[in-house]
Specification:
The chain is of the alpha+beta class and 214 residues long. 37% of the residues lie in helices and 11% in strands. It has a three-stranded antiparallel sheet, with no helix packed on it.
Length: 214
Amino acid sequence: MAGRLREPVYVEQEFSFLQVWCSNQQPLHCAFSLERYSPATAQLSCKISVRQVKGHEQILQVYTAVAEGEKEPVPFFMQTDCTVTSQTGPKAFKIPLSIRQRICATFDTANAKGKDWQLLAQKLHLDRNLGYFAKQRSPSAVILSLWEACHQDTADLDSLASALEEIGKIHSKSSPKDADEAEHDLSDIQMGGVCGLGNLAVPEGEDCAPEYTG
């Protein structure tokens, strides 16, 4: 780090698995302090690496100017000052936010016909952790995050669409009207991939927005 205290050269902060999965803070934060030792130096450069143990890594290279007498924290992550030099490409897969919100709105709400987050967990083969999910503010959001961590490619959205299709077939047995609506909505999901999932219909009476937004 040019123009800064060089000891220690390498500083690391670690979040445990429980901190990541049990925290209500979205997202988790960490902070590093640097001491300026040369008044003549007005530039800051450093490298920030975010990684999982034996997992994927993202590196951010930071360059910024520090004005003389500046007392405010250096804005490390301003878009103009920070560039991503290494990323995991398709491995950085995330379920689109609009899709995540619609799924959470549908399955977090208790449903007399059994279409709830427990059925979602079952169809995504994550039903071994029902007790843990039940304690969360948005069980569906946690289920989707765990599914996301296990399926790191956009092509895996097909398996999510298939699970939703199975749930739709179970739900559609309740009435002919539900069957017609389910057939229409789920055909959109199958044909459209990511875009089709965005057309997921929230059943009548279940269109409230979830508290979870991340």
